[in-house]
Amino acid sequence: MTTTIFDTRHYNYPQNFMEIKPKLARLEKAIKKLEANLIDANDDANIELLNQKLSGELGLKVDYARELNPDQLLAATTIEGKVLVIAGAGSGKTKTLTYRTSYLLENGVKPKSILLLTFTRKAANEIKDRAKFLLASSLSNDELAEDKLPTDKALNSITSGTFHSFCNMLLRQYSGLLGINPRFTILDTGDSEDAIDLIHKEKKYPAQTKSQAFPRKKTLQNIISSSRNRRIHIRDLIESSYPDIAVHIPIIEQLAVDFHEYKRANHLYDFDDIISQVVRHLKTNDTFRQMLQNQYRYIMVDEYQDTNIPQKQLIDLICEPESVSLMVVGDDNQSIYAFRGANYENILLFGETYPDAKLIKLEQNYRSTPAVLDYINALSEQITLGYQKQLYSGASISGHKPIFSRLTNETKEAKYIADKIIELKSDHDYNDFAVLCRTSFQSNYVQLEFMERHIPFIVVGGIKFVERRHIKDVLAFIKILYNPNDTIAWHRILTLFQGVGTVTATRLTQAINADNNSFEPLLTAKFAKKSAQLEPLYNTLTKANQAESVETVIEHILDFYIPVLKTIEENWRERNEDFRVLKNLATEHSSLDNFLENLALDPPNDSVATTSKPDNNDSDKVTISTIHSAKGLEWPVVFINSLVDGITPHHRSLDDFEELEEERKLFYVACSRAKTRLYLTAPDYFASYSGYFDKPSRFIAELSANEVTVKASKQVREENDDPVWW
Predict the structure, then answer these.
(1) Stretch among 140-144, 365-369, 620-624 having the lowest mean pLDDT
(2) Cα torsion at 13, 19, 23, 24 (round to 10°)?
C-alpha cells in the first residue's frame, strides 16, 4: 500500500469534472491511438532497420549513431511522414532537432524546403548555429579548404523563426497575391490596448450601466485576443471567465468589431492578426496555399504543446499533402500557457489530426539526478491525461531526495531559503541557485531577506524593454515615419504636448490622413496655436525622413524627444540610459521596417536585475523567477516556495478541472528545473483578501512519502497535533 505524505481527504475535487468527461474521453482515445503507433528504438527490428539505413547511407559526414542515444537517433533520422516526438524534461530535444537538421541537409534535402518554427528566434538560431558547427567540424581540413559543404549558405537558406515572424514575412512577401498593403505596422499588446481605449472613447456607444464599471483596456484586449485564439465567442468567454462584466457584453462585442475595422483602415496588425490573416488566405487562396505546400516539404515545430488554435491551423494547412514531412516536438506535461491562448489539446489530438502519424519518445534525462527524477516521475503519474513516459538517468549515484519544509510564516520561509544557500555556497556559485514562485509577489520576503544577508540576486520579470514608456514614445515616432496611417502612434506623440488633448489629436490625425499622410497639417494655424511643439515636431520628422540610417533617424528623434521627456519624468536621466540600447539595436538593421518588426516580434531580453548591491556588476547572482519565466532553464539547486493550497495551486483553479491540471503541470515544470537538489517550502498559512489558506499544496500531499523528505519547524509540529500532517 502506498502511503501519501498527507491526508488527501482535506482537498476538494473540481466541480466541473463530470461536464468535461466527454472531452477527456475523446482525448484519451486519440492518445491511445498514437501510443499504438509508437516506434520503440529498443525494439530489435527497429534497431536492425536503423543500422541498415545508416550503414547504407555512404558519404554521411556526421556519426549520428555515436552522437545520439537510440531514441534521439530515431527522431533525427525519421524524416518522412508525420511524427510526434514527446521530449521529456532535459531529454535533449534541441540536440535532436540540431542533428535532424544536419541529417536532412546531408541527405540532399534542399535548404529552402525546410521550415523550422520555434517560439523564440533565439531557439531557431541556436539550432541552426549548432547544425552549422556540427557539419563544419565533421569535415577534414582538405574538405573545408575545398568548400565541400557550403554550411553557411545552406543553413541561411532554411526558413526559421517564430510563428509570428514567419507569418509576417509571408504577408509582406506575398502582399500582391493576397491583396494587402505591405507597409503595415505591428501593434504590440500595449498598442492594442491603447487602440481599443481610443476607439471606446471616440465611438458613440449606448449608455453604460452604473451598476458595474466598464472594464479597463487591458481586460478588453485580453478578452478580444483570447476569443480569437481560443475560437470562443466573446459572449461565451465573458459569461464563463468574466461574469462580473456580463452586463457590458453587447458593447464589448461591438468594440471588437470596431477594433478590427479600425486596424484594417489604418494598415495595422496586432499579434493575433499576423497569424490569423495567413490562415485565412491559406483557406481561401488556392494559389497561395499550393505555393507554400510546394516550397516547404520538411517542417519541424518546437514546443508544440504551446501552440494555439490558429498556429495549429497554419501547420495543418501547409502540411495537408501526405508527401509533406512534419515533425512536432513537445512535452504534454509542460503545457502551461493557457492564459496566452495555448491549447493543450493540440498535442494530445495529434493522432486524431494525422491518423497515420508515428510516435517517438525521448525519456533519457541528462539534467537531474535519479532521486530528483523519481519525484518528477511521481508528479507525472498524477497528471490525468497524457502520453506515458518514465524519465530515467544514466547516472550511477542517486543523489539527494527532494526536501519539503513547513515553516511558521513567510519570513521564516525566506530565512530557511537564505540559510540553505549560505550552507551550500562552499560547493556552488550563486548563479547555481534559483528560487521559483507561482506569482512574482511571493518573492517579496525572499528579496528582503537576501538584501539583509547580502546575497546578490536577479529578479526575472518586470516591465519589458519595449513596453517602457520612453521606449514606446520613441518607437511611435519611427512608426509614423514608416506608416503615417498609424493613428495610435500619432496619438501617443501628439498627446505628449501640453495643450494637445485626445480630441485635438484625433482631429489633427484625421487632417494628416486626409492630406495624403503629409506632415503639413502640423503647421496650419488652427493646430499650431494649440502647442508650440508642433512646428519643431514637423522639422524633426522631415529631417528624420531624409536620414540614411536607422541610427540617424533615432538621433534626430532623441534630439527632439529628450527635452520633452525632461518635463514629464523626474528620472529622465535613468531612462536616458535605455536609449543607448535602442541605438545599439538600430545599428543591426538596415531599414525602419526591419527594425520595427524585430523589436515587435523578437524584443530584447525582458529581465530586470535587482540586487542587494546595485553597484555590483558581478554576474554571479541567485535567480528569483516566476515558474512561467523559468521554463526551459535549469539550475543545480532549486527552491520552490509558497506551496500552500490556494497559492500553489492558485485558488481560482480549484473548481475547474482543466485549470487545476495546468497548475499541476506548472509545478511539474518547476521541479524539473532542478539538477541535483530540490527544496520545497511552505509557510504555515497564507492570508490575503482572497482568503485564508493553511493546507500544504495538494501537489505535495498526494505523492508517496517515499519520494520526498518531509521536515517541519518545532512550532508547526506543536500546533498541529494530527500526526498525519507530519
Answers:
(1) 140-144
(2) 20
Beta strand pairing call for 185-187 and 268-270: parallel
Task: State the DSSP H helix or E strand holding residue 460, giving kind and residue range, or none if neither.
Answer: strand 457-460
Q: What is the pLDDT of residue 11?
A: 73
Question: Residue holding cell 504555515?
Answer: 684
Non-local (6+) Cβ contacts of 426 within 8 A are none
Beta partners for 693? 686
Are 643 and 696 within 8 A, CB to CB?
A: yes
Q: Output phi, psi for 327, to 5 deg.
A: -125, 120
Average pLDDT over residues 552-571: 90
Q: How confident is the model at residue 151 (pLDDT cuts 50, 70, 90)?
A: low
What pTM does this model have? 0.86
Helical H runs in 231-369? 234-241, 249-265, 271-284, 286-295, 309-318, 345-348, 350-353
Q: pLDDT-derived band of residue 614, with 50, 70 and 90 as boundaries?
A: very low
Grid cell in block for residue 320:
495537408
**Residue with the larger pLDDT of the pair 663 and 703:** 663
The string of DSSP codes covering 477-540 is HHHHHH-TT-HHHHHHHHTTSTT--HHHHHHHHHHHHHTTT-SGGGGSHHHHTT-TTHHHHHHH
In Å, the largest CA–CA distance within the chain is 87
CA distance 484 to 267: 10
> What pLDDT does residue 380 have?
94
The answer to whether residues 222 and 259 touch, using CB atoms and an 8 Å cutoff, is: no
CA angle 23, 29, 32 (to 5 degrees): 140
Q: Nearest to residue 670, comparing CAs of 336, 305, 392?
A: 336
The residue type at 401: K
pLDDT attached to residue 62: 87
Backbone angles phi, psi at 720, to 5 degrees: -120, 95
The neighbour count for residue 56, using CB atoms within 10 Å, is 7
DSSP 380-412: HHHSSSS-----B---SS--PPPEEEEESSHHH
The Cα 317–Cα 299 span in angstroms is: 12
- Residue 114 CA to residue 699 CA, distance in Å, equals 42
- Report residue 247 as a C-alpha cell: 452586463
Cα separation, 417 vs 643, whole angstroms = 14
Note the residue count of the chain. Answer: 726
Burial class (CB in 10 A: 0-12, 13-18, 19+), 189: middle
Paired sense of beta strands 674-683 and 403-407, if any:
parallel
Nearest by Cα to 156 from 128, 133, 135, 130: 128
- As a whole number of angstroms, the distance between CA 508 and CA 511 comes to 5
The grid cell for 201 is 472613447
| Range from 195-204, 266-275, 489-498, 524-533 carrying the lowest mean pLDDT | 524-533
Question: What is the rounded distance in angstroms from the CA atom of residue 558 to the CA atom of residue 540?
Answer: 10
User: Would you give the distance in Å from CA 86 to the centre of its chain?
Assistant: 19
pLDDT digits (tens, 9 = 90+) for 647-695: 999 988 988 899 999 999 999 999 999 999 999 999 998 887 778 888 9
With CA atoms as reference, report the closest residue to 404 among 3, 1, 2, 6.
6
CA distance 383 to 367: 21
Element (H, E) at 688: strand 686-688
Q: What confidence tier does 351 reach under pLDDT thresholds 50, 70, 90?
A: very high
Distance separating alpha carbons of residues 407 and 713, to the nearest angstrom: 6
Q: Residue range 690-714: average pLDDT?
A: 82
Strands 691-693 and 686-688: antiparallel
pLDDT tens readout for residues 326-340:
999 999 999 988 877
